């Protein structure tokens, strides 16, 4: 009879490994919902729980409101609730710029980057500072209208109020989930089950995806619960789940800091393998095609398996299009340095959200572009707060083939720096939303960048005379297809006339919240007659839009697909029927707060035109 001791030894080792892994996971604070300890294992009450509202909004990617007011801005998330538990559309809440999939269906929509991991679906973010650093025990998000957009909650190790910035900034995911459709727009308190982390925090980041929503989500306040001392777990542990013994631990290790990602970028020593299996029998191009479906971290892992795959994973052809936005929390100067040799042929690069809090330096960014910028066609730098004048100068010098540049919400770039963009005469797309670009620099850009097809100037508050800007567009930018003038405060019928006469290829025009435009001047009717190719027109919050304007659109802009006339008092149901009958491609019609369009009219129009999403917002 064989001895039983070896079997006992194996079982003991297996049980030891399970407990060791459980202990490590708990220590790291990376237990996900599948591995969460049951209620009888929660932290022992060793100290008093602190409850605090956000003290300050530190950063955000976009908002519906103006830079010079509080209505619909992210700044409303600071402090106690203004609206909750009421439901409806209220100006005192925080609202992001977009919702649904409408922005992906308009002429200005950008092609997505391939290799984006399925776990990353965030579209916008907001970062909130709290008074006291705590070990989080709960996060409450007060949603007052169309809830369900929050997809990730993160905590940061850096204290925004500390005089001594840390050498390393860590971000931990407290909770993450794919977008879900919530039935009904009513207010709710969203309290997901969060992970424990092993550092105190007073910096919380919410990331949202509004693609499944029927309208803008509205957030009122965020409440952070936590304790000052690190919780001690009870010894009563739940049964070990066999699913814990899987490959996800590698995923968690990969996600816990910059070091691991950088090490994977820098692996140069490979284990000796006796054979490459059957991969060396395949054509080089076929292996490249197979690997093109892997994410960047997967490429880094695969490069460690054998010399053949290392060669393929480091081939610059694998990095023609590269998005580092999903890994924003772990990208730094070292990451860019390791990627340099692989990105010599790169054409599309997405560094949006990366580099903040000192992670990427001006010198590190400049070194990377000097090696990898010559073939760049598209550069996404949204919310890159490390960018300064030197960076823009390097971009214009090192990227001679650049056609698309996104500087959305790069609000730390000084006004004079934008003059450098005029050197890139090949630009076809320029996004300056929420930047400090001034009139002189913008006039220079328009004068020298005559190939522009897509231009976003939404919420650019430092431009003094939009009529002059519109006149320059009409004279120089004949190829313009989309133009965003969201919340420009001083454009008049004169500027609109110059624009419509000179840019007759326009398919998309956003004039939302432009208070100086008045229908009585004929500016909207003139637009409709001069721009027959219009597919998207936003006249949001212009109270003067009237039946004549709608009838001109129906007669001249038959390809119209999206129309926003929120807030007008002068449009009747009869003119809307003419529009819907004439514009067969219309898919979005926002008539929120239109005083002549009540719910009964909306129901009737929905019944007669079922292919059109007709939105009627409300306030209680």
Automatic annotation (TrEMBL):
<protein>
    <submittedName>
        <fullName>FBXL4 protein</fullName>
    </submittedName>
</protein>
<dbReference type="InterPro" id="IPR006553">
    <property type="entry name" value="Leu-rich_rpt_Cys-con_subtyp"/>
</dbReference>
<keyword id="KW-0433">Leucine-rich repeat</keyword>
<dbReference type="Pfam" id="PF12937">
    <property type="entry name" value="F-box-like"/>
</dbReference>
<dbReference type="InterPro" id="IPR057207">
    <property type="entry name" value="FBXL15_LRR"/>
</dbReference>
<dbReference type="InterPro" id="IPR032675">
    <property type="entry name" value="LRR_dom_sf"/>
</dbReference>
<feature type="domain" description="F-box">
    <location>
        <begin position="276"/>
        <end position="331"/>
    </location>
</feature>
<dbReference type="GO" id="GO:0019005">
    <property type="term" value="C:SCF ubiquitin ligase complex"/>
</dbReference>
<dbReference type="InterPro" id="IPR001810">
    <property type="entry name" value="F-box_dom"/>
</dbReference>
<keyword id="KW-0833">Ubl conjugation pathway</keyword>
<dbReference type="InterPro" id="IPR036047">
    <property type="entry name" value="F-box-like_dom_sf"/>
</dbReference>
<dbReference type="Pfam" id="PF25372">
    <property type="entry name" value="DUF7885"/>
</dbReference>
<dbReference type="GO" id="GO:0031146">
    <property type="term" value="P:SCF-dependent proteasomal ubiquitin-dependent protein catabolic process"/>
</dbReference>
């Amino acid at each position: 009879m064989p001895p039983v001791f070896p079997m006992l030894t194996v079982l003991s080792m297996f049980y030891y490994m399970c407990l060791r892994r459980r202990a490590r996971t708990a220590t790291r604070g990376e237990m996900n919902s599948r591995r969460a300890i049951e209620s009888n294992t929660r932290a022992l009450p060793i100290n008093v729980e602190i409850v605090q509202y956000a003290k300050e909004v530190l950063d955000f990617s976009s908002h519906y409101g103006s830079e010079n007011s509080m209505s619909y801005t992210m700044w409303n998330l600071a402090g106690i609730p203004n609206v909750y538990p009421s439901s409806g559309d209220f100006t005192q809440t925080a609202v992001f710029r977009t919702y649904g999939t409408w922005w992906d269906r308009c002429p200005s929509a950008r092609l997505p980057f391939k290799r984006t991991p399925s776990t990353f679906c965030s579209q916008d973010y907001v970062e909130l500072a709290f008074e006291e650093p705590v070990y989080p025990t709960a996060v409450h998000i007060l949603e007052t209208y169309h809830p369900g957009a929050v997809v990730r909650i993160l905590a940061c190790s850096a204290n925004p109020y500390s005089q001594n910035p840390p050498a390393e900034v860590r971000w931990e995911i407290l909770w993450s989930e794919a977008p879900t459709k919530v039935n009904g727009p009513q207010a709710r308190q969203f309290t997901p089950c969060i992970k424990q982390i092993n550092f105190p925090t007073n910096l919380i980041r919410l990331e949202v995806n509004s693609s499944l929503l029927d309208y803008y989500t509205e957030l009122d306040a965020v409440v952070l619960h936590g304790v000052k001392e690190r919780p001690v777990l009870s010894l009563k542990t739940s049964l070990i789940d066999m699913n814990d013994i899987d490959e996800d631990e590698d995923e968690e290790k990969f996600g816990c800091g910059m070091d691991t990602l950088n090490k994977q970028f820098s692996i140069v020593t490979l284990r000796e393998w006796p054979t490459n299996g059957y991969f060396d029998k395949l054509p080089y191009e076929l292996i490249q095609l197979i690997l093109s479906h892997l994410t960047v971290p997967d490429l880094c892992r695969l490069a460690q398996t054998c010399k053949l795959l290392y060669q393929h994973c480091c081939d610059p052809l694998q990095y023609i299009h590269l998005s580092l936005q999903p890994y924003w929390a772990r990208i730094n100067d070292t990451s860019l340095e390791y990627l340099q040799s692989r990105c010599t042929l790169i054409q599309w690069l997405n560094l949006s959200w990366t580099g903040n809090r000192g992670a990427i330096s001006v010198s590190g960014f400049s070194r990377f572009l000097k090696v990898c910028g010559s073939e760049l066609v598209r550069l996404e730098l949204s919310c890159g707060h490390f960018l300064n004048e030197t960076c823009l100068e390097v971009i214009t010098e090192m990227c001679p083939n650049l056609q698309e540049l996104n500087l959305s919400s790069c609000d730390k770039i000084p006004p004079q720096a934008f003059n450098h963009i005029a050197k890139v005469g090949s630009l076809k797309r320029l996004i300056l939303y929420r930047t400090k670009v001034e009139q002189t620099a913008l006039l220079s850009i328009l004068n020298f960048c005559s190939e522009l097809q897509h231009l976003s100037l939404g919420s650019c508050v430092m431009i003094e005379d939009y009529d002059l800007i519109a006149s320059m567009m009409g004279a120089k930018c004949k190829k313009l297809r989309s133009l965003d003038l969201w919340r420009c405060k001083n454009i008049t019928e004169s500027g609109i006339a110059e624009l419509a006469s000179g840019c007759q290829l326009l398919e998309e025009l956003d004039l939302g919240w432009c208070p100086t435009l008045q229908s009585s001047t004929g500016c909207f009717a003139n637009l409709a007659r001069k721009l027959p190719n219009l597919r998207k027109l936003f006249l949001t919050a212009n109270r003067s839009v009237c039946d004549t304007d709608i009838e001109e659109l129906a007669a001249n802009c038959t390809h119209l697909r999206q129309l926003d006339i929120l807030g007008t008092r002068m449009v009747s149901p009869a003119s809307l029927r003419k529009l819907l009958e004439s514009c067969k491609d219309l898919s979005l019609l926002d008539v929120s707060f239109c005083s002549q369009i009540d719910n009964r009219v909306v129901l009737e129009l929905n019944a007669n035109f079922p292919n059109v999403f007709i939105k009627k917002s409300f306030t209680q």
